[in-house]
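Exam revision sheet. Question 4 asks you to relate a sequence to its structure. Input first:
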Amino acid sequence: MDALPPKPDWLNRVAVIGVGLLGGSVGLSLRRCGVKVTGYSRRESTCKTAIECGAVDEGFTELSKACEGCDVAVICSPVDKIASLAAEASAALPDQALITDVGSTKGLIVDEVNALVPTVRAQFVAAHPIAGSEKTGVENAIADLFDDKCVILTPTDQTPPAQLDRAKQFWALTGGNITLMTPAEHDQRLAAVSHVPHLVSSLLAAFPDEPALPLVGSGWKDMTRVAAGDPAMWTAICDHNRGAIINQLDHFIDELKSLKSLLAAEDSGALLRWLEHAKARKDSTL
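Answer key, structure tokens:
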């Protein structure tokens, strides 16, 4: 990627709440820019690993200590814990601090934060960096995970403009390219390009019977790679974004029925055109 932007004068110390793959990668990306990073985990062993990996300068098992004196707190937890952790972090942060997150859903998180006290609402800017892996754990974190990746921010009419500007500066320093959209727009689009594909990958992983499994090749392995993701994390994502996922699944089912009809019609020319169109769509994203 091109050179990272200069570190803003206001950004000196960041708390990463949840030092797994994403949290660790946030820490590594910021430390290369001279930002001091503290990490929070419930487990002392995770804090120790995060320090050894270079993801954080200090690790704490008390969230308030991790947030002390920080300019930003990044919530890197499962989506169903983000709002409560934001409230807990807010109580330990300076009033002007930014709180942001890495959650894969946005609508319910934003609603839950907006139901909290005004201080938390004024600090929080919801974010979703489109980067990750089926792997977990801070030991798999990498400093350039967010470089040239899309980072979606979903401000609302309650988001202070100055706080949104800080969120843009913060995520740009991780290497991300900033995109703005509403929480509802985010959830529908991510259901289409992430959440439904994950469920389809899991379905494909479970689809073959036992005698077929010794016959699987690279195609099946490629299609099912993301099915190796954390089931608990993906259950929480599906619970949070159920409506949008069902909406996109209905659309997917309609398309699958159309494909079945295309095959049943024995129209090889139409099938070839369908496959060529799909290939062109895929090639255009490379």
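Marking note for examiners. Residues 127 and 153 are 4 Å apart (CA to CA).
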